[in-house]
Amino acid sequence: LLVTSPYTRRQATPGSVSLATLYNEPDQTRYQEGPAAAAILLEGALPSFYANRISPKTSVAAPKAAATDAKLLVISDGDFMKNQRNVVRSDIPRGAPLPLGFDQFTGQQFGNADFLLNALDYMLDGSGLIAVRGREVTLRLLDSPRADENRGAWQGGNALGPILLTLLLGAGYRWLRKCTFAK
Fold it and tell me: How many Cβ atoms from other residues are within 10 Å of residue 100's Cβ?
């Protein structure tokens, strides 16, 4: 589902982290390992984590040994769905969470949230929610001269209409009660 660029370098964990690397120009020859998978989706019969466990003495049925139609999303980076906290912007309180996928230092909005929503829709779907999300809706604009011409009538109708309807329904209800209990 997600693949890195061809300019990739894999580093074993635990890796040493040093702020001195920020001052050194990266060596381009070290980033030649080619694309690497960053997210994959596993589908099919997956074994259950609870398959060989002793079930508790309750009325709950024992878990299945394997799921027949399972879907599992594996993402290589745990920070993929982690919001950054504000440390730079002055218009947002310090420490407030930023939108998912927003990098506060470059000001870029990445597609992390869209990717996760589409992946969850695919895994939970069955009725075509992905097709609905991708559909574009065109807004039909009003005819400006005609709207300006009838503006007062529409504003008056929208302001007085609910009031008149409420008075009419109240009078009808009062008349109905008067007829019912007058005897």
Answer: 19
Length of the chain: 183
Say which residue the tokens 């991708």 belong to: 134
Which pLDDT tens digit goes with each residue over 127-156? 666 666 666 777 777 778 888 889 999 999
Is 145 inside a domain boundary? Answer: no
How many domains, the chain?
Answer: 1
β-pair partners for 47: 66
Whether 61 is in a domain gets the answer no
54's enclosing H/E stretch is none
Judge whether 28 lies within some domain: no
The CA distance from 17 to 15, in Å, is 6
Output the pTM of the full model.
Answer: 0.55
